[in-house]
Amino acid sequence: MKPVVVVGASLAGMSAVQSMRSGGYGGPVVVLDASPEMPSDRPPLSKQVLAGEWDLDRAALPMARNLAELDVDLRLGLSAVGLDPDSLELSLSDGSMISAGGIVVATGSVARRIPGEVPSGVFVLRTGADALALRDELDRGPDRVLVIGAGFIGAEVAATCRGRGLEVTMVEAAEVPLQRVLPTDMGSFVADLHRNNGVDVRLGVGLDSFLADENGAVRGVALTDGSEIAAQVVVVGIGAVPDVSWLEGSGLELLPPQEGGGIRCDESLRAAPKVLAAGDCASWPNGSFNGERMRVEQWESALEQGTHAGKQMLCEIGAGQDPGPFCTVPWFWSDQYDAKIQMAGRAGPGDEVHVVDGSVSEGRFVALFKRGGECRAALGVNRPRLAIRARMKLAETLAWDSMLELFEP
Length: 409
Ligand SMILES: Cc1cc2nc3c(=O)[nH]c(=O)nc-3n(C[C@H](O)[C@H](O)[C@H](O)COP(=O)(O)OP(=O)(O)OC[C@H]3O[C@@H](n4cnc5c(N)ncnc54)[C@H](O)[C@@H]3O)c2cc1C
Hints:
By secondary structure, the protein is α/β, with parallel strands linked by helices. It has helices at 11-22, 48-51, 67-70, 128-139, 152-163, 184-196, 299-316, 384-396, 400-406, and strands spanning 4-7, 29-33, 73-76, 80-84, 89-92, 97-99, 102-105, 109-111, 122-123, 145-148, 168-172, 200-203, 207-212, 218-223, 228-230, 233-236, 240-242, 263-264, 270-272, 275-277, 282-286, 292-294, 331-336, 339-345, 352-359, 364-371, 374-381. Strands 3-2-1-7-20-19 form a 6-stranded mixed sheet, covered by helices on one side. The protein has a 5-stranded parallel sheet with strand order 9-16-10-11-12, covered by helices on one side. A hairpin with a 4-residue loop joins strand 25 and strand 26 (364-371). The chain is globular. It binds flavin-adenine dinucleotide. Flavin-adenine dinucleotide is lined by residues 7-13, 32-35, 39, 42-43, 45-46, 79-80, 106-109, 125-126, 153, 243, 246, 279-280, 297-300, 302, 332-334.
């Protein structure tokens, strides 16, 4: 019997395995991962691990704790370098091939880097190894940490470094933090949150070049406005890109960045018959949002997509029922200082923002994002229960009036 091969042993891939096993599948499963170590669960990396509160072991993926029960042939340090969707064959980095009965592609994303050579002391944060390397440098007590990019990762790194008592400058080329995901006034809230916690926030200015000492170690950066900032540690948090270049020429459709990137899947996460994609690398039409094509780089989505892909795989290979289309309300959380930020749905820069509970100035509120007659997203800051209820409502309906009813006194 040919195995189901899962490419990527992180959250989406391991969720797919878990879901196949809970669906009663007892056949062979091979899991490949390019990383020589079992991937860590990523959210604690920018929070507890970087803060020095947790060992990396504590940030293990939940499924990594019961690998024996999952009964997988786990091959770490081995990459898939090609995939033939017709023959279901995968070519591997050691020159070998695997012939599969079905394939789940869960290769996630990688941190976007500044092109060209960078001095030592410049970090990205994606993997457990990245977190440990950066933490070692923070342990040395640099005079200043410079964070390039005020997206969620950059903002969390800045908050964690402040929590460690370090001086931090955060530089963002856009006019407000999180411009890609939040309308301007909500991004301003995030900028104020950091300023109020002692971060030197520089907006609307980009990186011109790194400054290095004679040993090739970073000593600061020059910015596009002509200013220079001295820093011994620089963290580049300028987003992630789906890790799908290995699929170029495979026949699977890869979307260009302007269409969100990733592997084009149907509503059931199928990229081809018996070839599914899940997690950060998958783009699919989300039935919960009128079929809008989405690629979501969020923990909960990777877990849910992996689980769905596992069920769908059983259907594809004749070992389970059709689970129907994959529909979800994206859900994200971020912990920065004493702010628990939670977001359900998908906001866009042009959305109208309505604060329907609490107040932004007190740092406890729920904001709804309106487009046409629809509520597209809800943002909760230190309002966990309401944020969850808003997510449940979005899963029922996007109708604006229905959402407002939830917040009526
Ligand atoms: C520091 C950090 C903090 C985060 N915090 C939050 C948070 O607070 N809240 C939230 O909602 N989300 C958060 N996220 C996002 C969330 O963790 C990701 O969306 C999630 O990890 C995606 O899981 P995945 O399995 O799709 O991909 P990944 O976790 O990227 O895993 C993909 C795996 O595939 C492997 N791989 C890649 N290419 C190949 C290949 N060709 N062959 C074999 N293996 C391959 C990689 O080695 C990797 O292990 C955070 C992410 C990071 C980096």
